[in-house]
Amino acid sequence: MYSRKTILSLMKSNVIAFLIMFILFAVVFGTSHYFTSGGDIMLTPQMDVANILIAVISALLLMLYGYYTQKKYHYLLALGVFFGSVVEFRENLFVIDGRIDSTFLGFYLVLLILVIFIMTSALTYTRVVNLNIDTMIYLTVFVLLFYVFLQMYVISSPLILDDWSLWPLELFMLASIPFFFGWYFSTFVTKKNSLNLSIYLSSLCYFTAMICYSIYNQGQDHRYLFTGTVFETLTYGIYFLFIPLAFYEIIKEKDDIIKKSEILKNNLFMFFKSAEYNENITVFVNSKHEILYSNSKYKIFFNHYGHVLDESMSRYLSEKYEVIKYNMNYSSSMKLEIGDNSFILDVDVVFIEQDDEEIFCVTAKDITVIRAMQESLERSEYKYRSFFNLIPDFIFLYDIGKNRVIEANDMVYNDFKNLPSNPLTSNQEDERFMGMSFRELNEIGERITTGEILKLDIMEITDHKGQNVYVEPNFRLISFEKNKKQMLVFLRNVTNSVKLHELRIENEANIRKLYIAEENEKMFNEFFTNMSHELRTPINVILSALDMMEISAYDQQKTEKYAHLIRHNSYRLMRIVSNILDITKVDSGFYKLYMQNHDIVSFTEDIVMSILHYAEGKGLKIIFDTEVEEHLVAFDLQSLERVLLNLLSNAIKFTKPGGRIFVTLCISEEDKKVYIDVEDTGIGISSENVHQIFNRFIQVNKSTTRDNEGTGIGLSIVKKLMNLMGGDCVVESELHKGTTFRLILNDEMISDLEHNPQEQEFFNKTSNRVDIEFSDI
323 vs 391, which has greater pLDDT? Predict the structure, then answer.
């Protein structure tokens, strides 16, 4: 914003310029009758050529001035003066007559836009477009050259817009020239010197000349023609007078600056003396930002030895002008770019008003490194503080000597509502924090050494909600002065891991139970399927035999045949029921054993002999072999018989005709064991099924069309009965080569004999039991 004083100064400058033009117009117009009474002498071509020569000389003077002041827009102004005279040669394009060259109108609008951009960027420090001033100046020159080229060599018959309604547009185009030059002259950063005044007056002269030509075209009044010609000549010739004056002003201003600088140096000698050796940047400038004094630190830092203040500092003073002037001094930081480097300066400006001149004392200190260090420390502190508080575990710092918690992270405050507090107990060491007493913390601090990390077992603590939290304590000594020991306590929260482990164990147990339940259900389903088949087959045979007996009217021969079938299948039913009952008794612990001392050799041989006819009936050869003729061992008669009959039944069922079955008995004095091997040359068992055959309800061949019957619980009973007698049953098998079952009994006798009430019945019904066990063959 402009100050009131600045606005009044601008208005005063424009009023003076208009008064000068009005007086000049009055003088020229008043004397025009005398010069025009002799006829139309002002319309000769030689006068136009003279104006072009004047414009060329003025353009050269402007370029010389621009070169001296290092301001490139003076070159653009010089080119504008030259090309303006060329274009206006006998054309008078800005004359208001209702006729506009369409090509000229287009180029004029383009130039108008470019001039706006240039003046806005150059005079107000505002970047209108993303182009620097030099680029826009070159672009403007290119447009001017291109237009002249089109006018002279390309366009032979231009398109002319001819309508009296166009005169407002022509007036606008003409008025824009003094408007923009007035804007330039009135800008507060522009010097009000002779050159800038001549530029402004030249635009006003051109405006007046074109107005006079326009009036002349309407009324043919030669006074206006004469006045217009004079002002057109003044447009290009006014620089003859003012540019030398501008050079004179520059010399005079430099002399004044030198004088004032010398006076100021003499008055402030001691200050300047100290400023030269000061670490700070010191510079004195006037209201035009011309340097009155600058110390070596300023010149070295900015690499600037000119008489005008550095551009960045000048922009800073312009932006802060009102605040500086109002407060008489101003301090702040500023960031600037010098080359590829960024700097931060701590700037202090003092405003000094001396007579009619404003002086600014600027002192700046390079705080780039300090600010970088501060920012780095702040970022580091913020980063580690954030990291400290964001860790999802419990951390606190304990002062061993003072028995108090210095600091804790947010997790401690949030979950435990614990603060580093003053002791509430009579004894400081009895106070507890995060599940540990200060006494325990002091003892741990005395135990660990510098750099050592002590890790303890997982401990359980209770938070403010009463929930259990599992933590893994870690301790580290971070301050190890003799009387100033501090210890960092890191309680790693492992609650989720512990609970996850418990859930994993529980889940594994549930999965195991589920798997067992699924397997049991599967076995039960298979068992009941097999059982229904096993029960249905003998029942169907019995019913069919009874039907056949009725049909045959109980013929004796047929009746005996069908009675045999009924008895055989009844044995099968008894065997199935007996197996189910026995496996249930064994599992529930109600199976009764009667362990007695018997001759294991004769017992085994008798059983083998009892099933000899079954083997021969299938074309098998069975062989019994023993190392001893007699040996007493404690076992249960009925249980061992069932075991041997079951194994022999399986051997006969799964051995093809022509095969062999070997029953071998041997005594191991070293192991104190009795071994009974039942070996066959049958179909064998695959390796993946060997370990399953003793499981309940398991059958290797599960198809309903298998060659041999069975419920799948026989071998399970064998295993359980041998275990009840203190022995075992193991198997070795190879597919398509045969299977060997080994019964293992402890080679020992018992003295406390228990009477078996069914012993006599056992010997009387041996053949009957064999028939029952072999009923499915």
Answer: 323
> How far apart, in whole angstroms, are the C-alpha atoms of residue 221 and residue 243?
34
Strand bridging mode 596-599 / 468-481 = unpaired
- Spatial separation of the C-alpha atoms in residues 264 and 248, rounded to whole Å: 24
How many Å apart are CA 498 and CA 469, to the nearest integer? 10
In this structure, the strands spanning 621-626 and 660-668 are: parallel
CB atoms within 10 A of CB 67: 12
Question: φ and ψ at 427, to 5 degrees?
Answer: -110, 120
429 close to 439: Cβ distance less than 8 angstroms: yes
b/e burial code for range 716-747 (CB count within 10 A of at least 16 → b): bbbbbbbebbebebebebeeeebbbbbbbbbb
Strands (E), 555-694: 596-599, 621-626, 632-635, 660-668, 673-680
Domains 391-493 and 565-773 share a fold: no
Euclidean distance between CA atoms 480 and 763, whole angstroms: 92
HSE, CB side, 13 Å, CA atoms: give it for residue 485: 22
In terms of Cα–Cα distance, which of 288, 314, 310, 311 is closest to 297? 310
Best CA proximity match to 25, nearest among 219, 209, 215 = 209
Angle at alpha carbon of residue 668, lines to 662 and 674, rounded to 5°: 60
- Phi/psi zone of residue 477: left (φ > 0), alpha (ψ -120 to 50 degrees), beta? beta
Give 133-147 pLDDT, tens digit per residue.
566 666 777 776 777
- Tokens coding 454: 């002590």
Selected residue with higher pLDDT from 642 and 450: 642
505: pLDDT strictly greater than 80: yes
The helix/strand count (H/E) of the chain reads as: 25, 22
Measure the CA–CA gap between 716 and 767, rounded to whole angstroms. 24
The residue ranges of DSSP E strands in 287-433, in sequence order, are: 291-294, 329-338, 341-354, 357-366, 394-399, 404-408, 432-433
Nearest to 651 by CA among 733, 727, 569: 733
- The number of CA neighbours under 13 Å toward the Cβ of 595 is 15
- pLDDT single digits (tens) 714-757: 788 889 889 999 999 999 998 888 999 999 999 998 887 666 66
Provide the pLDDT confidence category of residue 39 given band limits of 50, 70 and 90: very low
What is the distance between the alpha carbons of residues 566 and 545, in angstroms, rounded to a whole number?
7
Report the CATH number of the 268-372 domain.
3.30.450.20
Tokens representing 316 are 């800073």
Segment holding 209, helix H or strand E: helix 194-219
Structure tokens at 299: 């010149």
Among 184, 179, 206, 201, smallest CA distance to 73 is for: 184
Neighbours of 211 (CB within 10 A): 21
Angstrom distance (rounded) from CA 141 to CA 652: 119
Q: What is the mean pLDDT of residues 591-613?
A: 89
**High-pLDDT (> 70) share of the chain, %:** 72
- Chain segment 623-646, per-residue pLDDT in tens: 999 989 999 999 988 889 889 988
- The token pair that represents 396 in the structure block: 């606190």
Distance from C-alpha of 97 to C-alpha of 721, rounded to nearest angstrom: 134
- Tell me if 721 sits within 8 A of 587, measured CB to CB: no
CB 209 within 8 A of CB 235: yes
For 565-773, CATH number out of 3.30.565.10, 3.40.50.720, 1.10.150.120, 3.40.50.300 equals: 3.30.565.10
- Scan for tokens 């312009």, then name that residue: 318
391-493 carries CATH number 3.10.20.30: no
Domain ranges of the chain: 4-252, 268-372, 391-493, 565-773
